[in-house]
Amino acid sequence: MEQKGVKDGTPVGRRVVLGMLGFGVAGVAVGATLQKGFNRALAPVNQIGEVLPGAADGFRYYSVVGSVRPRPPARHKVTVGGLVRREQAFSMADLAALPQTRLTRDFQCVTGWRVPEVMWAGVALPDLLDAVGVSPRARAVRFTSFDGVYTESLTLDQARRRDVLVATQMLGAPVTHDHGGPVRLFVAPMYGYKSLKWLGGIELTDKVISGYWERRGYDVDAWVGRSNGRDDAPT
Ligand SMILES: Nc1nc2c(c(=O)[nH]1)N[C@H]1C(S)=C(S)[C@@H](COP(=O)(O)O)O[C@H]1N2
Ligand SMILES: [Mo]
Question: Of the bound ligands, which one is closest to the alpha carbon of residue 67?
Fold first, then answer.
């Protein structure tokens, strides 16, 4: 999907332009303020979400690539490397052997849909980071998906929150393939795009490397309920 970044940090693609035509705006020569309003109003069309047949869980299916080849849990490993003391590849059994954390939180996509009180379980990211030992030079964490395209990032302070999970369970069952299993990220305090699906790699870095949507204009700090997550974000 082609996306072009515009002024106010919200990506606008072809569909948005088509949407603007629908609003009776030619899509050209829109003033900065108007443009901002439109970007907000039209945000939902930037991500194409499908309600999967038979899925009554309230989520929409998002993937920036056409189809993702399923990973059998028995063969899947999440590698943790970069600025760490000991690189390690965690199998599902390795993850299960670490302390487990459960959370029930709303899931909020930046485009407006929300699923209330979703049950999540897995390894709190700080516990996984402790297991490998973070180098004093690390400042951020980069996440990669085995879809081969999607990436995300957190500052190290954000990554040390106990409500950030390397999730192996969602909605009371193992994370399904469509929802990004066997392992996905769940960043409870932030918009859904931070919750990377099909987690394959975690890399400690010396600075934040913008993720997929962030390179297309979304805020790197994606706190839910803050118009601007840059100033007083909690750590
Ligand atoms: N790999 C990958 N992870 C992703 C996305 C994606 O397209 N690819 N979309 C993000 C967005 S915008 C949202 S809202 C949630 C949607 O999760 P779901 O598909 O399980 O509903 O996944 C996030 N993680
Ligand atoms: Mo989203």
Answer: 1
What is the Cα gyration radius of the chain? 18
210 assigned to some structural domain = yes
Index of the ligand 1 atom closest to the CA of residue 63: 7
Does 58 map to a domain? no
Output the domain CATH number for residue 143: 3.90.420.10
Indicate the pTM of the whole model.
Answer: 0.80
- Cα(129)–Cα(160) distance, integer angstroms: 8
Which of 193, 198, 218 most suits a substitution to test ligand 1, by most atoms within 8 Å of the C-beta? 193
> In which domain, by residue range, is 212 found?
69-216
The per-residue pLDDT for 100 is 98
Which residues surround ligand 1 with Cβ inside 6 Å? 47, 59-64, 109, 145, 147, 150, 179-180, 192-193, 195-198
> Could you report the per-residue pLDDT of 63-115, keeping only the tens digit for each?
999 899 999 999 999 999 999 999 999 999 999 999 999 999 999 999 889 99
Give residue-wise pLDDT tens across range 28-37: 344 444 444 4
Helices (H), the chain: 14-22, 32-42, 92-97, 125-132, 156-159
Contact status, residue 83 vs residue 135, Cβ threshold 8 Å:
yes
- Only one residue has tokens 């990220």, namely 185
CA-closest residue to ligand 1 atom 8: 63
